[in-house]
Design brief:
- The chain is mainly alpha-helical.
- It has 26 helices and no strands.
- The radius of gyration is 31 Å and the shape is flat.
- About 5% of the residues have low confidence.
Length: 481
């Protein structure tokens, strides 16, 4: 090789070495900056109060790793989860501010930090964070909805409508987006548009969201009969307001606050995530093994999962911790009956009444069993005790009316039936019984009126309504109007 060639080769190698050195300096500088940023973000360890000693140990371990370990960013992320899940929002926010800088591709930090800020009413600060999270994870629906909800709360209706529309492009019948758009319609006086969106949301969510706005819309549209229907549904289904948010529910794997876990487990169950709900409450139980309320909540989740043997064990442990819980006695008695232990079920009910003599639910169940055994006078006594203890609810009156009808004591049965409807005018069992009684006694006008109310009560099944109307046709020779 000529001297000129050697010179160029040497120059090229030198340039590569210089470039490599420059890259190394940049990498080292960036890593140093990351290290400094992470170290500066580590909060002072707060007073952890009555939380598990393991919680404090993990906080201290995460702080050490974040300062010195090779997994600094992972340690700071774990620290953010620990603080956020246990209600230390200031400390969690400090962690998130650094994580957004050193791990900018992770949308969870943005979403969780924005959620904290929004909880304190800082929507102007939360909104850009949700927007950045949506750019990174455009298909994560909770972030899109949070962004739209923030715009709506800020009275930026046009932007909110666009944001809700972005959700509907991904999920055409998302109930939360539909309700958001319905609110915008209502603000603009477009009540017919709002009605369509709300009815779709109610149907899609199985009456979980949107029903509370429908009475206002129906009243504005002159559809007053539908208002009673909505109120009937409300008693049956209840409501929830927030969309399922897995990125937030994940936090509870790091929660040591039993009360927070109980709330989170209930939320997870309410939005249909039963496996996560079970896992959260099992964690709560591991932290508070003698907490009767946690045992009761977990038993209910096991029942929902059709795990009756596990539910039985939890109800038993609930009562061992607190024998003054009538609902636990009632549920344990029911579970034992489902498991084929009739004697154990009866013994449990008797024990519950002995410990909780003021429980109307236990007296009603005892009355039903006495009635089924043909011990009518004793059953009547139990139903009357149920009514005395809980006079504002229809159940005791309805059961007592049914027994009177069975015994041929019609006047007494009618009196109790009418009393039940005074207490709960839309009670489905009472409405059905009143309609059938009027058909049986040949009172066509009264039967037709009861059937009209039956039709408006969605808690009465379509099959039952059909049977009542068929009885009307058979008795009067024409369908009810």
């Amino acid at each position: 090789m000529s001297g000129r060639g050697k010179f160029f080769l040497s120059a090229a190698v030198g340039a590569l070495l210089l470039a490599g050195a420059a890259v190394a300096v940049i990498v080292w500088t960036r890593e140093r900056d990351r290290r400094v940023c992470v170290a500066a973000a580590i909060p002072a360890v707060p007073d952890t109060g009555a939380l598990s000693p393991e919680f404090r140990r993990r906080i201290e371990d995460c702080g050490t790793r974040a300062r010195n370990g090779p997994d600094r960013v992972d340690a700071l992320g774990e620290l953010s989860r620990l603080y956020h899940a246990n209600g230390f929002y200031s400390e969690a926010s400090r962690c998130y501010e650094a994580l957004i800088q050193v791990d900018p591709g992770n949308p969870r930090w943005l979403h969780r930090f924005a959620t904290i800020l929004a909880g304190y009413g800082q929507l102007d600060d939360a909104l850009p964070l949700w927007r950045r999270a949506a750019e990174i994870a455009p298909d994560y629906i909770p972030t899109l909805l949070k962004q739209a909800d923030a715009l709506l709360k800020m009275n930026r209706d046009e932007e909110a409508a666009v944001a809700y529309g972005a959700v509907l492009k991904r999920e055409a019948r998302n109930p939360w987006a539909l309700v958001g758009l319905a609110r915008i319609d209502m603000d603009a006086g477009r009540f017919e548009d709002a009605r369509g969106r709300l009815e779709a949301a109610v149907e899609e969510s199985n009456w979980g969201i949107g029903y509370d706005l429908l009475p206002t819309v129906y009243e504005r549209l002159g559809m007053n009969e539908r208002v009673a229907e909505i109120r009937g549904r409300a008693k049956a289904f209840g409501t929830f307001s927030d969309t399922p948010d897995p990125w937030m529910l994940e936090l509870y794997d790091d929660c040591y606050d039993v009360y927070r876990l109980m709330l989170a487990g209930g939320d997870a169950n309410f939005v249909g995530d039963l496996p996560r709900a079970v896992r959260i409450i099992e964690r709560a139980l591991s932290l508070a093994p003698d907490n009767a309320t946690v045992h009761f909540q977990l038993a209910g989740l096991y029942l929902a999962a059709n795990r009756r043997v596990d539910a039985r064990r939890q109800f038993e442990q609930c009562l061992a911790a607190n024998p003054e819980q009538p609902d636990a006695w009632f549920q344990l008695s029911r579970v034992l009956a489902d498991l084929g232990d009739a004697r154990g079920s009866d013994r449990t009910l008797d024990a519950g009444l002995s410990r909780c003599p003021g429980s109307p639910g236990l007296h009603m169940e005892h009355g039903r069993r006495l009635a089924a055994a043909g011990r009518s006078e004793e059953a009547i006594s139990e139903y009357k005790e149920t009514i005395r203890l809980r006079p504002q609810e229809a159940g005791g009156y309805v059961d007592l009316a049914g027994l009177y009808f069975k015994l041929g004591r019609l006047d007494e049965g009618v009196a109790q039936l009418m009393r039940s409807l005074e207490m709960e005018p839309e009670n489905p069992v009472a409405l059905s019984a009143a309609a059938l009684y009027s058909v049986t006694t040949g009172d066509e006008a009264t039967a037709a009126e009861w059937i009209r109310r039956v039709r408006l009560q969605p808690r009465i099944s379509a099959k039952e309504r059909t049977n009542i109307e068929a009885a009307f046709v058979q008795r009067f020779g024409r369908p009810p109007q």
